[in-house]
Design brief:
This protein is mainly beta. The chain is built from five helices and 27 strands. It starts with a helix and ends with a strand.
Length: 415
C-alpha cells in the first residue's frame, strides 16, 4: 500500500513539472521567404527574391508578440494583426533585408535632346544633309529655253535659277548647282554679255556651249570661270536636233575647274533670308503673269505649296534623267526690273540684248501666296542684290528654291 501511494505521488509531481525531462525544445520552422513586388502600371513585370530552397529559418518568438507569415501573392496585402487577433486599419509593408523591391511607377524620364540645326544652303536658306557639300564652288549651267529645247532636263534639280531675255523675245536660264549636282542637265547653250556681271559675286564656274570670243573674254576679267564643250562631262543627245542637244554632268566638270585654278569658293547668301515683312504685303496672290515679249508670256500659279510655271500652250515641264516628267516649280519668285540695252561687239557685228545689274530699280518678291513690292540696290557686281521697302527697311526673302527673273523695265507683270 505504501508503494502504491509513493508511485502515485511521483506521477502527480512529474505532471506538475511539465512532462518528460527527455523532450527537445519546440522548434518553429518557417517556409522560405518570398517577397513579390506589386505589378507596375501597363508593362512593368513583378520582381521576386526567393530564399534558396532547403534552407530552414529558425524564428524565436518574443513573449507576447504575434508573427505574421509573408504571403507569396503579389496582388494581396496581408493585414497586420494586433495581440488580440483583431485586424488593424492600416497596412504595414515589411521589407526583408537584402530583398529587391520594384517601384510601382516608372519614374525615369527620357528627354530627347535635339541636335544642331542643319546647315543652310546660301542659295536657298534650306538645310542640307551634308555640310561638306557647301565647301565648294557653284556650277552655273546656261540652259536653253527655245521651244526646240523643251522639255529641259535636270533643271528641277537646281537650287536656284536665273531667267534672262535673249534674242527674238525668248529667254534663257542659268541653273545654279552648289550643294547638289545633276548628272544630266540641259540643253546647254552659249553665254551672253549679262552673265559674268550677274554671277560675279557668287564665285561660279559657268558651263556653256560656246559663245562669241569677246563675251568669253569678259569672264576672267570678272573673276568668273567658264568651260565650253571639251569632251569631258558633256554629251550630245542623238534623239534631239542640234544645237538643242548638248547636255552636261555638273559633277564631272568640277575637276576641270580645279585644273584651271578657278576659284573653289562657296557663294555668299543669295538673299537675306527671313519672313516677308508684314507691312509690305498688300494681299494674297494666286497667279503671276509676266509678258517677256508679245510672243512670250509666262504664268506662275500658286498651288498652296509652290509656284507652277505655265506657258501659253500649257504647263512648262522638265524631265528627270530617268525619263519622269513634271511641271517646273519654284518656292519663291523674285522679279528684278532692270534696264534693257544692246551691246555691240568691239569689232562690230550683231548687237545682243543686255541687262543692267548694278544701280537700283523695282523688285517684286512672291512667296507663300503673297507679294511684297519694293526696290533693289547693288553698288557693283562684286556685291549681292539688297532689297528694301519704300521706307528703307529691308525685305527678307523666305527660305526655299528661288526663281529670279531679271525683267525688262516697262514690260508688264500682273497678279
Amino acid at each position: 500500500m505504501r508503494r502504491i501511494l509513493v508511485a502515485t505521488a511521483m506521477a502527480v509531481l512529474a505532471a506538475a513539472c511539465g512532462g518528460d525531462s527527455g523532450d527537445e525544445p519546440a522548434t518553429t520552422s518557417q517556409p522560405p521567404t518570398t517577397e513579390a513586388s506589386a505589378e507596375t502600371s501597363d508593362t512593368t513585370a513583378s520582381s521576386t527574391t526567393t530564399t534558396p530552397t532547403g534552407e530552414t529559418t529558425t524564428t524565436s518568438a518574443t513573449p507576447g508578440a504575434t508573427t505574421t507569415p509573408t504571403e507569396d501573392t503579389a496582388d494581396t496585402t496581408t493585414p497586420t494583426e494586433d495581440t488580440t487577433g483583431a485586424t488593424a486599419d492600416t497596412t504595414t509593408t515589411t521589407t526583408t533585408p537584402g530583398a529587391t523591391t520594384t517601384p510601382t511607377e516608372d519614374t525615369t524620364t527620357t528627354t530627347a535632346v535635339p541636335g544642331p540645326p542643319p546647315t543652310p544652303s546660301p542659295l536657298t536658306g534650306l538645310g542640307v544633309a551634308d555640310p561638306d557639300s557647301l565647301n565648294r564652288r557653284t556650277m552655273a549651267v546656261k540652259v536653253d529655253n527655245h521651244w526646240d529645247g523643251r522639255p529641259q532636263v535636270g533643271i528641277g534639280e537646281a537650287e536656284a535659277v536665273f531667267e534672262l531675255l535673249v534674242e527674238s523675245g525668248i529667254t534663257r536660264f542659268i541653273a545654279l548647282f552648289h550643294s547638289v549636282d545633276s548628272t544630266y542637265v540641259g540643253p546647254v547653250r552659249s553665254v551672253r554679255p549679262t552673265d559674268p556681271h550677274l554671277l560675279r559675286h557668287l564665285n561660279t564656274t559657268v558651263l556653256a556651249s560656246g559663245g562669241q570670243d569677246w563675251i568669253i573674254n569678259t569672264f576672267p576679267r570678272n573673276g568668273v570661270g567658264v568651260i565650253g564643250e571639251i569632251g569631258v562631262g558633256g554629251y550630245r543627245e542623238e534623239t534631239r536636233r542640234a544645237p538643242h542637244n548638248y547636255f552636261v554632268n555638273t559633277a564631272e566638270f568640277r575637276p576641270t575647274a580645279d585644273q584651271r585654278l578657278y576659284p573653289n569658293t562657296p557663294p555668299p547668301p543669295l538673299f537675306e533670308i527671313g519672313d516677308l515683312p508684314v507691312s509690305g504685303i498688300p494681299g494674297g496672290v494666286s497667279r503671276v503673269t509676266m509678258e517677256w515679249a508679245p510672243t512670250n508670256t509666262v504664268t506662275w500659279k500658286w498651288t498652296g505649296s509652290a509656284y507652277e510655271r505655265h506657258l501659253e500652250d500649257g504647263p512648262h515641264t522638265w524631265t528627270h534623267v530617268e525619263g519622269a516628267e513634271e511641271v517646273i516649280t519654284a518656292d519663291v519668285l523674285v522679279v528684278i526690273f532692270s534696264r534693257l540695252f544692246y551691246t555691240t561687239p568691239p569689232q562690230g557685228g550683231v548687237t545682243l540684248p543686255t541687262m543692267e545689274t548694278t544701280g537700283e530699280g523695282r523688285v517684286l518678291v512672291f512667296a507663300e501666296g503673297q507679294v511684297v513690292d519694293g526696290r533693289w540696290e547693288r553698288a557693283d557686281t562684286a556685291q549681292p542684290f539688297s532689297f528694301m521697302l519704300a521706307d528703307g527697311s529691308p525685305i527678307t526673302v523666305p527660305a526655299g528654291r528661288p526663281w529670279i527673273s531679271v525683267f525688262p523695265d516697262g514690260r508688264l507683270v500682273s497678279w
